[in-house]
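new request in #modeling-help
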Amino acid sequence: MTAITIAWIALPFFLGFLIFLVPKLNRHLTLWGSIASAAYALQLFVEPTPLTLKLLDNFGVTLEVDQLSGYFILTNAIVTAAVIIYCWRSDKKAFFYAQMIIVHGSLNAAFVCADFISLYVALEVSGIAAFLLIAYPRSDRSIWVGLRYLFVSNTAMLFYLVGAVLVYQTHHSFAYAGLKDSPPEAIALIFLGLLGKAGIFVSGLWLPLTHSESDTPVSALLSGVVVKASVLPLLRCAAISPEIDTIVRIFGVGTALMGVSFAVLEKDSKRMLAMSTISQLGWILAAPEVGGFYTLTHGLVKSSLFLTAGALPSRNFKELQQKPIDTKIWIILVIASLSISGLPLLCGFGAKVLTMKNLLPWQAIAMNVAAVGTAITFAKFIFLPHTQQGEQLVKPGFWPAVALLITGLVAANVIYLQAYNIADITKAIAIIGGGWLAYTFIFQRVAVSLPRVLEQFDHLIGMMSLILILLFWMALA
Amino acid sequence: MLEAFIFATILCGFFGIILKKNLLMKIISMDVMSTGVIAYYVLIASRDGLFSPIVGKVANAAYSDPVPQAVILTAIVIGFSIQALMLVGVMKLARDNPTLETNEIEKNNTP
């Protein structure tokens, strides 16, 4: 098992290197890399005991592989595979695929490591590779968006490094468990790094622009898995001590509400999806013990939504409401939107119920509000006009990619079948119905556009210092 | 004392990122900040002593802790590669925005 794990971690990087040597095989190698990850993840679900590895020495790299990382790795594998299939017949060069498999590998590494320094390395590698993917079209805008992403994430990670050495100073080890008795500065700095990198709460407002301005497959990849690289460490940290768990839950609730309130008012489809990613990350953090399942469902839904949004004729909802879209594309939109709003028969429902069951009492009201907000947000997609005729151009790889993701959405239902009882089904339908009513009577008519001041570059960096103070104060309390 | 200087470096870098208008200056400020972080690792490593932990003539000297130093080496390499990548990006941007004013670039490139 140890050998398999190490080989599996090294495989994507090796494949990435191989793609540069044999550029002809680019797509095939990338696809095989993600299939290998999927196989490894599925194998983790049947493995009864978590695997802990300590490589080299006492201070060396530590890995921890359990079911929680299994969910994340599975999400990573499916989303990467779908994006590769989507790009299969496009004119992307070998460089693109090599970066994609390197992102995949570094995310895998981030999902299994159990000490702060390996995590740092994995996150930075994923940041660099994601930057190269964002900047792949080489236009001015894509370079600026990528630079901004790299800048924010690198500054956040510098704070994180200071936090990591403070943990080392107290415990003489970089393991996650050391966060327990570390000084509050260490917790504040490490959390600032992870929150900023993951795009959570106010420090994560870099996310909407980055995810909405990237190319369609890249934004699917970014929103589907790349942001989750630093969510898993937060979940692991939450398991260490009750105080840290409280901090994570508070941020989860705050993020869910903030993201959804931005998303409800958003008029641009891709930006709305990006805002909803912020809110869904909040959902994952709100119940840290069961975040894995939610991650899987969100990864599948969000990447299929981003791929579909790329096939729509316009990004503006005003224009989309004038022009009917193809019914086949509309059906995909509806399935994905219903899953994220939590309709039974799709695995978004199971994930929502499981998260709701694991909330603390003070979180319940806020998360129900966020659930209604999600239903309102995605009613925008569901109530779009559509027609049978009118041939629409989709990329050749679109249908197989989306089919894979939607199949995943239905199949993942088996993970939590206990969700299917009368009370929960009624509640889910009530939430969706309430959301749709609110949409038709209120939100379809309001024309409030929120200012984007907070998304300016200087404000993003400046906001980090405020979040740092907030975190420090929370860690002290 | 040294610790205070190091934190001053980190803060200088951080405020440089916020306050400097030029994109190139921002990147250099980020470098200053990462230098501060690296120095902090070295400082923590040298808490117990200054001798390098290799086989030598000195017996039972006060050795410095090798782990933070080894670890920060990775961070130096990563920081350096990110700097290089960003400067390449800036070179591309500079063709159309010769002043490299961040506000201008941002205004031109956000929808």
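bot summary: Residues 235 and 288 of chain A are 5 Å apart (CA to CA).
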